[in-house]
Design a protein that fits this description.
By secondary structure, this protein is α+β, with helices and mostly antiparallel strands. It has helices at residues 2-13, 18-24, 30-34, 43-46, 53-63, 82-91, 100-109, 118-128, 134-161, 167-184, 196-213, 222-227, 229-258, 275-281, 289-301, 304-319, 321-334, 342-347, 349-361, 393-398, 443-460, 507-515, and strands spanning 39-40, 66-71, 74-79, 96-97, 165-166, 367-372, 376-378, 381-383, 388-392, 461-465, 474-476, 480-482, 487-492. The termini are far apart. The protein binds protoporphyrin IX containing FE.
Length: 516
């Protein structure tokens, strides 16, 4: 902002008309002239913390629902206001792109649905959303049950051995197993095995997360890519995943070519209900890089997010035993020894509220990233195109102005007979799955997934923070992680007494009637 501004001022003193100056220097920082958006001071050091959304919360309390953060030569707008968020995400969404996010994730997601913008996004969104139809999501509920059952077996062993367990990594494996089957019919079986492909997925994930918080993109330096052992490992992992994807696509393509099923709206192959199968049957080009990008995107989008939700839900429950008791009471009364069904989803009302509330306190991801594609007005402030914007969902969800007892874990704040809270009925103060045209396509999937896992786990076990474990603190990648894991002591619950069923008319009477 400095130098061009000085030149402009000098020209103005020399008598150059202001209309010409405005034309020539229109690109010079608009905020310099309007000087309205509050600017956070001392901001560089303020965000040099691991979980960067924490200092952003402090700055929000000081500077309000929109402020500018200067970070060396870069500057960001931090938005924590429901109506400005609604404007960016929904009402004027066409004026915003994914910006930095797309740049960071390009190496793994290419032009997959999360980073994609413009026409590519429009076409792919229209292809992918129908794949997650009602019948598909209902079929997934059984998969959630099976996968969670594997985790229960693992916990069973730990409970009888009296060993503490690190739940965060177990949840990560649970949701990886689920998303692999759900998206491309592949069983990572990561809860039982540590195969090369599982390690490759984690190498790539860790890289994506590190890049999203790294200040300088060193991976972009050409020679670095070739000599850095770490970057070579990332490249090898990507290749392994891509080769596996190619195989899965080929297998699926053969199945689709051989089957006689007609494609229709709620098309689903019972043997392979995966999203990939739907896409190929719908006529998606099996040879395209775009298909691979979208599969990779869903693998990542649907994996760490759900894992993080479960991790923080169990953390929150460990701090509020009264919520846990209420939860277990509901689960005991709804679930039997069968895997949960779609009907159970409607009955597990309190369980759902626990997840709703966990998503409020620990939104995944804690910030949404956008870049303005044109000049716009946010609230009362004009902004220029090219602004990088962070919408802090964390701030929205924890704002003392928007919530009573904002920092308290209180599932009761959501009435059991009320609607499921979402961005629309909460007027953009609650955005667990984003909002507007870029809203999560997996919201229902993820809600059922986390409800099934939570319900099955707390039905069978009690969970407590392990004695002597390090305090549970936060760090960020794309989602909120713990710094040292979530170490818990798991004990088997004593089964609730089986309540006898009402006396039925006895068989004897029946048979005597028939004998007559
Ligand atoms: C987008 C959250 C699970 C696929 C999003 C967004 C959020 C979100 C907040 C919006 C991002 C933005 O506006 O910048 C979550 C949470 C999940 C979850 C909290 C788990 C609890 C899933 C699952 C899938 C999925 C299971 C896949 C089956 C996607 C995709 C997008 C997306 C493809 C991009 C949509 C678009 O840009 O058109 N998710 N998600 N998510 N999510 Fe999810």
């Amino acid at each position: 902002s400095g130098f061009p501004f000085v030149v402009m001022k000098s020209l103005s003193k020399l008598g150059v008309p202001s209309a010409i100056l405005e034309f020539l220097f229109g690109w010079v920082d608009a905020h310099e002239e309007c000087a309205k958006i509050p600017e956070a001071k001392g901001s560089v050091s303020a965000i040099r913390s691991e979980a960067f959304f924490i200092p952003l919360y402090e700055l929000y309390l000081r500077y309000g629902g929109i402020f500018r953060l200067n970070f060396g030569p870069k500057s960001f707008l931090i938005v924590s206001d429901p109506s400005i968020s609604k404007h960016i995400l929904r009402d004027n969404s066409k004026a915003y792109s994914k910006g930095i996010l797309a740049e960071i994730l390009e190496f793994v997601m290419g032009t997959g649905l999360i980073p994609a913008d413009g026409e590519i996004w429009r076409v792919r969104r229209r292809a992918i959303v129908p794949a997650l139809h009602k019948k598909y999501v209902a079929a997934m509920i059984n998969l959630f049950g099976q996968a969670t059952d594997r985790l229960c077996k693992k916990l069973d062993a730990a409970a009888s051995d009296g060993e503490d367990v690190e739940m965060e990594s177990l949840f990560s494996r649970l949701t990886l197993d689920i998303i692999g089957k759900a998206v491309f019919n592949y069983d990572f079986d990561s809860l039982t095995n540590d195969t090369g492909i599982v390690e490759a997925v984690y190498t790539v994930l860790r890289e994506a997360e590190d890049r999203s918080v790294a200040p300088i993109p060193i991976w972009d330096i050409p020679i670095w890519k070739d000599i850095s052992p770490r970057q070579r490992k990332v490249a090898a992992s990507l290749k392994l995943i891509n080769d596996t994807l190619d195989d899965l696509i080929a297998i699926c393509k053969r199945m689709v070519d051989e089957e006689e099923l007609q494609f229709h709206e709620e098309y689903m192959n019972e043997q392979d209900p995966s999203i990939l199968h739907f896409l190929l049957a719908s006529g998606d080009d099996f040879s395209s890089k775009q298909l691979r990008d979208d599969l990779m995107t869903m693998l990542i989008a649907g994996h760490e997010t759900s894992a993080a939700v479960l991790t923080w839900t169990f953390y929150l429950l460990s701090k509020e035993p009264s919520v846990m008791s209420k939860l277990q009471e509901e689960v005991d009364s709804v679930l039997g020894d069968q895997f949960p069904t779609i009907e159970d989803m409607k009955k597990l009302k309190y369980t759902t509220r626990v997840i709703n509330e966990s998503l409020r306190l620990y939104p995944q991801p804690p910030v949404l990233i956008r870049r303005s594609l044109e000049d716009d007005v946010l609230g009362k402030y004009p902004i220029r195109r090219g602004e990088d914007i962070f919408i802090s969902v964390w701030n929205l969800h924890r704002s003392p102005k928007l919530w009573d007892d904002a920092s308290k874990f209180k599932p009761e704040r959501w009435p059991l007979d009320g609607p499921n809270p979402n961005e629309t009925n909460q007027n953009f103060r609650y955005l667990p799955f984003g909002g507007g045209p870029r809203k999560c396509v997996g919201d229902l999937f993820a809600s059922y997934e986390t409800v099934v896992a939570l319900a099955m786990l707390v039905r069978q076990f009690n969970f407590q923070l392990a004695v002597g474990a390090p305090p549970v603190e936060m760090t960020t990648g794309a989602t909120i992680h713990t710094t040292d894991g979530l170490n818990m002591t798991v004990t088997k619950r004593i089964k609730p007494p089986i309540v006898p069923v009402l006396e039925m008319p006895t068989l004897k009477m029946d048979s005597s009637v028939s004998l007559l």
